[in-house]
Amino acid sequence: MELDGKVAIITGGASGIGRASVSTFLREGARVVIADINLEGARTVVVEEEAAGFAGRVVAVRTDVGSWDDVRAMVAAAVDAFGRLDVIFNNAGIPGGYPILEQEPDAHYYPIMRVDLDGVYFGILAAARQFAAQGTPGVIINTSSIYGQSAGERALVYGAAKAGVISLTRSAALELAEHDIRVVAITPGRANTPIIARFSEELTEFMAKEQLRGRLTEPSEIGEVVAFLASDRANAINGTVVSVDDGYIAFKNRLP
Ligand code: NAD
């Protein structure tokens, strides 16, 4: 198994991409801390995974990734539960979707930045400190988005946060390499999760058609890539962006 013996935190693990990654990580031998603001949802995942045979290998912690205190407590909880930390998947996020002329900083800027950018920054900091204190290698995987790579409708703040995640990833990788810590970002395109489910059927169909194979990406397909990136087999991948968008950016950049 790829992740045998590793201890991983997955933020936003109660739903969507994070939820699917919990299953993949467990199947690959990891012990997993599900950190989510939705504690009830995270506990439901624990019960489901225990029933699937992973009892004793998965716990839930209520964490608001926009709070530095919570994120430090989350890492402490992982060490409490499993004795160490090897991987963090900074994945929790909230969507944008507001037209510029209707935006208010307090309602539309700070709340999105707080979760989508601050949350990743805090996760990098807290995990890196733990890895360095242990004196062991570590892997940090951050969820960006195609909106961090391209302009997007109603994505002024979300896109800025997700572009920021790519920048955090590159600079953190540069500085943490001497501690044998790898840092990688992933950019999902249109993944079949509750974030997408709030759109109309028509818009969802349109989005799916813009991926090269005309379909939404399943969260489990992204979980597979994340588990690979977390494993030693991906040891050569560092300080970069791994696209998990089924060719969305390629489609957008195509020539006639
Ligand atoms: P989702 O809504 O299914 O899951 C997000 C999870 O994050 C939820 O469990 C939620 O409770 C949790 N969360 C929200 N705010 C939090 C906070 N402050 N602290 C801790 N947990 C919090 O969404 P998803 O589609 O699985 O998205 C996961 C990540 O992927 C997000 O960062 C999102 O921006 C990104 N993404 C998704 C898509 C897509 O098409 N679904 C595309 C590109 C990027």
TrEMBL record:
GO terms for molecular function: oxidoreductase activity. It holds the Pfam family adh_short_C2. PROSITE patterns: ADH_SHORT. Signal peptide: none annotated. The keyword Iron does not apply. Keywords: Oxidoreductase. InterPro entries: NAD(P)-bd_dom_sf (IPR036291), Sc_DH/Rdtase_CS (IPR020904), SDR_fam (IPR002347). The keyword Oxidoreductase applies. PANTHER family: DEHYDROGENASES, SHORT CHAIN, ESTRADIOL 17-BETA-DEHYDROGENASE 8-RELATED. Belongs to the short-chain dehydrogenases/reductases (SDR) family. This is SDR family oxidoreductase.
